[in-house]
Structures are given as C-alpha cells and as structure tokens.
Amino acid sequence: MLIEHTGNSPRIHPTAWVAPTATICGDVEVGRDSRVLFGAVLTADGGSIRIGSQCVVMENAVLRGIPRHPLSIGHRVLIGPRAYLTGCTVEDEAFLATGAAVFNGARIGRRAEVRVNGTVHLRTVLPDSALVPIGWVAVGDPATVLPPDRHDEIWAIQEPLDFPREVFGVDRSSGMMAEIMARYTRGLERHAADRIIEE
Predict the structure, then answer these.
(1) What is the largest CA-CA distance in the chain?
(2) Quick one: pLDDT at residue 72?
C-alpha cells in the first residue's frame, strides 16, 4: 500500500518491487531493483527514507524516518525480518539480520553486520566491516560492542547519550512518559490526513 503523508508520496523505481501487503508512507524512495517484502512498513514521519539499489527489506521489518534523522540505506543492503530501523544511516553492503534494531542517529559502516537480535544504539557509529554478534549491543562513537549481560558497562556509555532528550526532547525524570506520550500522540496525529494512493 502506498500512502501520501503531509503532501509527500512514495517514489518506487520502475524496476523495484513492493509486496502488496507492505506499507510505504510519505517521503520514501525505493531504488532500482530493490525489493520490499510482505508486511514491511516504511514510514517517513517527518524525515525522509532513501533506499538504494538492489536492497531487500524482508518481511515485517519497520523503517522510520524522523524529523532530526532521515533514514538512509545504501546499495546492496539486506534488512532482515522483524528488523527495526529509525533515523539511521546504513552504508553499502551491510547485513542486518532478523530482529536487528538500529536507533536514531546511528551509522552502520560499509559491509558491517548486525546479527540476529543485535542492537546498535542511539548515535552509535559502527565502523566498516564491524560485527555485532547475536543478541549483543553496540553503543557509542566509536562503537563498543558488548554482550547484553554487561548492562552496567552498556549503561555507562548509553546514559550520556540521553535517549529521552535525543528522541523526544524531554528530560529523564519519573514523569517523563506523560510528556513523551503527549508529544508523540500529537505528532502522529498528522497521519489522520493521510491519503491512500495505491492498495
């Protein structure tokens, strides 16, 4: 399904293919010979999404472009099933496996791999040809790659990155969720005026 959002319509290269149950919303460009498979969602929520040539976005992956961080995918990139990418840059020939998560402002270097359920955190820079093993976490610039059971070390790098301020513009506090959700629901209200272009 192709959806116009805030006056922007998806642009699909004539040689690309989008599955009939995929959803592509807003300022999204899908490049030459790329494939977007069943159930994938690509939504430009205030930031564009650009997908290069010969990429595959697999089943049920979610890609989001946001105001401060457009989403950019290079050429010959594989994005696995159930992957989640928001406001990040993925360079050529990277491999993001099933369940990989890449967050706002992160950069995945050329030919880097994020294996099954790996996480690349906020504003993290994963160098060219780097590897995030199954279930591990990359955090910081340059990235430190740690197993998930080393939470204290991950948090020591992650806390100054200030996820609530970077993503939602609010201070970390006990009442932050009320403010975050008020802002978030207001922002998403723009979808009420969306227009389906093609089902």
Answers:
(1) 50
(2) 98
